[in-house]
Amino acid sequence: MTSPASAARRTVRVDLGERSYDILIGPGLIASAGAEIGARLKGCRIAVVTDEHVAPLYLEPFLSSLADAGIEAVSQVLPAGEKTKSFEHLMTVCDAVLGARIERGDAVVALGGGVIGDLTGFAAGIVRRGSRFIQVPTSLLAQVDSSVGGKTGINSRHGKNLIGVFHQPDLVLADTGVLDTLSPREFRAGYAEVAKYGLIDKPDFFAWLEKNWRDIFSGGEARIEAIATSCQAKADVVAADERETGLRALLNLGHTFGHALEAATEYDSARLVHGEGVAIGMVLAHQFSARMNLASPDDARRVEAHLKDVGLPVSMDAIPGGLPPVEVLMEAIAQDKKVKSGRLTFILTRGIGQSFVADDVPASEVLSFLKEKHPR
Amino acid sequence: MTSPASAARRTVRVDLGERSYDILIGPGLIASAGAEIGARLKGCRIAVVTDEHVAPLYLEPFLSSLADAGIEAVSQVLPAGEKTKSFEHLMTVCDAVLGARIERGDAVVALGGGVIGDLTGFAAGIVRRGSRFIQVPTSLLAQVDSSVGGKTGINSRHGKNLIGVFHQPDLVLADTGVLDTLSPREFRAGYAEVAKYGLIDKPDFFAWLEKNWRDIFSGGEARIEAIATSCQAKADVVAADERETGLRALLNLGHTFGHALEAATEYDSARLVHGEGVAIGMVLAHQFSARMNLASPDDARRVEAHLKDVGLPVSMDAIPGGLPPVEVLMEAIAQDKKVKSGRLTFILTRGIGQSFVADDVPASEVLSFLKEKHPR
Ligand SMILES: NC(=O)c1ccc[n+]([C@@H]2O[C@H](COP(=O)([O-])OP(=O)(O)OC[C@H]3O[C@@H](n4cnc5c(N)ncnc54)[C@H](O)[C@@H]3O)[C@@H](O)[C@H]2O)c1
Ligand SMILES: NC(=O)c1ccc[n+]([C@@H]2O[C@H](COP(=O)([O-])OP(=O)(O)OC[C@H]3O[C@@H](n4cnc5c(N)ncnc54)[C@H](O)[C@@H]3O)[C@@H](O)[C@H]2O)c1
Ligand SMILES: [Zn+2]
Ligand SMILES: [Zn+2]
């Protein structure tokens, strides 16, 4: 089978001066990975990191594409799931990369979802104080979000993503065809981040999603279009604020609540995956904004309706297994990295596509809001 | 007892644009740490990391100086020694810092030698993707070398310092008085790095050291002078080449051999400490340069004589416990981070104070040179 017309392929450039890079988006990119990498990073050797779900599906095709282009490679397969973003696995990856004698001019590749991308990017950022890095995101979430922007990291027992570095990739290859093997649940979770870009500052994109989401789920042009629009949105924010000192915080819409829910469910993906936490978090952020008289409750209802249509959870009681008391959620929120000198920083909204950074949100308001929403 | 006149205090500025910082050098700086830090980092909280040798001597004075300045602090004491630069202890420090709720505006402090500085700086560089960092170096080596320049890291089973980040401190406080409790052996080891700056490109400084080394060892003005000159030398190189792409490699004079010897002795400080490896390595680099007809053998003899006067080891047979075969040393040299695409990069010299980067040194020459020098 030949790969679909590369005419459908899109390129988004992340503009970061010397560290600028391309995101290639389209079907068949795993099959042409060797050629794309070989054309850009001459004579490099490669260490591929992937997980046990992705390996049986795409490791062989990826490695043979490299081999066809004359690129030497070694690979490391890790367990799948959020718990893999740990010090233990970071050490495993660093050891594997060093053991393979990957030098500064060579490259480390993340072939997988956001977990593999975050962990591998962190390892690439610290091995020899920074090695070249290529993202080959295979989940929708990784394609539209985690593979773009250079944030890498692992989790700590004190919270998610608290340990890491900024380390930009040299290239991102987003093969939209591989999303067909992603479970519907994971696809939906990634879709939450797509919707997020509309909710941040693209009301027309959100309206387009309300109409076209079924086409995105089934594949083809609409999917490529949605991914490219999302990558462009993230690339714009990253280019304007690489180190997350201001603007970039908007990308955290829904994430403060979302991270607290992930912590409360102990990162157990059987109960909640990242994108699901974000979906609930975005609905909560819109509801909280309405409660603070910043936005109309109709907007919150519209967000809730769309995410529900798609099949995403939209409230805390949708999480199986129950939640700890509200006080525990507040703890997690206060430890979240978006807290500055004690005050709570949240992304709130004035309506669909009108999000903003509110850095003086009273903890007491959040607490009483959560008490209302919390399932008994 | 009042601290000696602060008139003796020197300041060296490391010029790195937005990330510029001061190195304060002189006696009594631990006693005035609270005031110095408080004046620069308003309202910050502090997590101090130190080791079990330094803690009983200086942790209390340091903490009370902070308390006097109204600065809240927590502390973490680790085992002393090179083996502490491990993933395990990195995790301990990250956990302690996060557990103390140190946020981006707060600061992590390394109170100790190069081991504590490298490990703690690395932790500061990855906690919340970068926290503020203060170096309070207490060994001579740390004061003249490791605390300046932002290189941080840990060791891997594949080699020394292979994992880390560049993370510049916000301030360095080098209290020259604390060096009086350093063991003579550790003082000498640090002195090897002082001599290195002369050998790189300061022949007059090397000649001054040949005359004045006894005064440096006994303390007072000559010591402050030697430390300030060393810091200035390192600051100049770092400012010109922060990320070690060229010039900065000169700082590795003696280090390729030195690291191989450290690996060969399994980082067992009973047998060899870093500065001793560097001393032997610098003698070897001068001898090898003479063998390659780049420099006069007289220069190699002069370097050997001075380091020997001071009490440093100057040849491989001075290392107790024997060494592995030459081939094992070559392995370590080839895995060392200064190898580019298979060729060997060494710092060689044309004479005292005339070092240069040679990036095409034939491995075969190094091998036969080592065979000659290697103790049977
Ligand atoms: N760095 C960033 O900027 C950033 C942004 C957002 C999220 N994240 C992180 O991303 C992570 C979540 O990413 P994720 O949702 O991709 O999780 P994931 O990596 O766990 O992938 C989800 C699941 O799908 C499987 N999978 C991936 N691709 C597949 C394919 N093509 N076919 C079949 N199965 C496939 C994986 O094995 C896994 O079981 C979280 O850790 C989150 O913190 C990071
Ligand atoms: N980051 C860099 O640029 C850089 C440069 C050079 C060396 N290094 C690293 O530095 C490390 C060596 O540093 P080091 O020689 O300071 O080792 P160290 O930190 O192990 O200190 C040496 C010994 O002296 C003790 N000590 C420290 N200060 C003391 C004091 N005032 N009184 C009594 N005892 C004291 C320590 O507890 C330790 O036992 C190596 O790991 C090396 O790789 C890093
Ligand atoms: Zn997200
Ligand atoms: Zn050194």
From TrEMBL, chains A, B:
Catalyzed reaction equations: 7-phospho-2-dehydro-3-deoxy-D-arabino-heptonate = 3-dehydroquinate + phosphate
EC number of the protein: 4.2.3.4
Compartment(s) of residence: Cytoplasm
Domain 3-dehydroquinate synthase N-terminal: 77-188
Principal localisation: cytoplasm
Cofactor binding, per record: Binds 1 divalent metal cation per subunit. Can use either Co(2+) or Zn(2+).
Ranges for domain 3-dehydroquinate synthase C-terminal: 190-339
GO terms for biological process, alphabetical: amino acid biosynthetic process; aromatic amino acid family biosynthetic process; chorismate biosynthetic process
Pathway annotation: Metabolic intermediate biosynthesis; chorismate biosynthesis; chorismate from D-erythrose 4-phosphate and phosphoenolpyruvate: step 2/7
Binding site for NAD(+): G114, V115, I116, G117, D118, T138, S139, K151, K160
GO molecular function terms attached to this record: 3-dehydroquinate synthase activity; metal ion binding; nucleotide binding
Entries under Gene3D superfamilies matching the protein: 3.40.50.1970, Dehydroquinate synthase-like - alpha domain (1.20.1090.10)
InterPro entries per the UniProt record, alphabetical: Dehydroquinate_synthase, DHQ_synth_AroB, DHQ_synth_fam, DHQS/DOIS_N, DHQS_C
Cofactor requirement: Co(2+); Zn(2+); NAD(+)
Any one annotated GO CC term: cytoplasm
Function text: Catalyzes the conversion of 3-deoxy-D-arabino-heptulosonate 7-phosphate (DAHP) to dehydroquinate (DHQ).
Sequence similarity: Belongs to the sugar phosphate cyclases superfamily. Dehydroquinate synthase family.
Record-given protein name: 3-dehydroquinate synthase
Organism lineage: Bacteria, Pseudomonadati, Pseudomonadota, Alphaproteobacteria, Hyphomicrobiales
